Amino acid sequence: MTTTPPSDSPPLLLVADHVAGAVHLLTLPRGELLTSLTGRHASEHAGFLALPGDRVAFVDDRAGELVVLAPFEAVRGGNPVAATVPVAVPAEHLAAAPDGRHLVVTTGLGRNEEPWSDLLTAVDLAAPGGPYAVRVRTRPGEPGAAVPAGTPGTSGDGGPLAVVRHREPGSLAVHRHADLLAAGPGCPPAGPPLAELPLPDDGHGDAHDPATGRLFTATGAGVHRTRCSDGGPTVEPPLPWEADGRSGGRGYFLRIDVRRRLLWSCLRGGPSAPTAWPAWTNDAWWHHLDTGRTGRVELGEGLVFRMAVAEEHVAYARCHPDGDELVVLAAAPSGAGRPTVAARVPLPPMDGAPRPGASPWDGVQRRALAASPGAPWVAVSRGGHGEIHLIDAASGVERARPTLPTPLDEGGRLALLVPGDGAHLDPAGR
Length: 430
Known about the structure:
Blueprint: E1 12-17, E2 22-27, E3 32-38, E4 49-51, E5 55-60, E6 65-69, E7 81-86, E8 91-96, E9 102-107, E10 119-124, E11 132-137, E12 144-146, H1 152-155, E13 161-166, E14 171-176, H2 177-181, E15 195-198, E16 206-209, E17 214-219, E18 222-229, E19 232-239, E20 250-251, E21 255-257, E22 262-269, E23 281-288, E24 294-298, E25 303-309, E26 313-319, E27 324-330, E28 340-347, E29 369-371, E30 377-382, E31 387-392, E32 398-400, E33 413-417
Antiparallel strand pairs: 1-2, 1-33, 2-3, 4-5, 5-6, 6-7, 8-9, 9-10, 10-11, 12-13, 13-14, 14-15, 16-17, 17-18, 18-19, 20-22, 21-22, 22-23, 23-24, 25-26, 26-27, 27-28, 29-30, 30-31, 31-32
């Protein structure tokens, strides 16, 4: 199902309060509440996935459903929920094919100490009779996922592939998406993959470039590259984390900047203990997908995790006992020049923020980020306070600070939506 946003539709901000069980939709730039969906506990780890037609998908971890939203329908006064389909939970990663029709959902730890679920869900949103999903077994862990378009040499009929990134032992398992959908009832094993390529055991972070068919996996040794092409998947030399005379650290996520054809991560270095997080070092790492140029930009010490891609900038939120900030980088267009720090915007403290000497992950407030390649703003949450800061990326000035009806404990998840912004060209949940 595709929809056409109203021609005068404002940009929207989608806010998931996964703890309280609500999804809010706000108009921008004023941040007025348009509507709320209650009883929806979006998977914080799998995040939001942009789909063609200005749709957005997420996994409701409590209901065990993939939810597809057409957010701009709410501008017309309509129902923003376009489709739902049952999937296995807790969702770890969510990814789509370039057509936005075929998806996969992997399962991970959820609120458990050890991996326990081995279920993988294959989804067809345009199946005859309506959206359809099938669950199969792989192996437990913290698997990543991608759904590259197939070719006659890799999937037989050129249909999409389902690639699962496993850990311990590390590997990329390549399946036909159609084979997964054809599995029988009872959650049978997925069956032998078309190909299985070795990876380091510590893979964490995945990206897929539909323009080239390349898959990227972040590991301690660098960014491993695999290309799905005629004749089967092929391994290319990994990209090193070292650049610009800076070394050390590793990335735990990857994200594609569709406007500038850049691959981004954040490299964390310093002491390994979670309790020593104030001393963690952080560098923004970038790689131009077409020219091969790579670089690093120092961000500062503390907790830096996810990032967001805006029209002319990218942004990282940095938490530190001495004060939190939004670090905004000017992203050089078309691979020319080098990204540089354009602004450091102080953020008000959070009650219940991570403390020195304690883990920054459990029982604390955090910040979520969102931006759109079609807008000049960055949205950052203030966990526990129910607030969103809408920052003008070029000037560093706060444009609005909407307050939500729920507290956004643990920071929530955000997605900034602009009609036709091309965000679906990064086909992984964020």
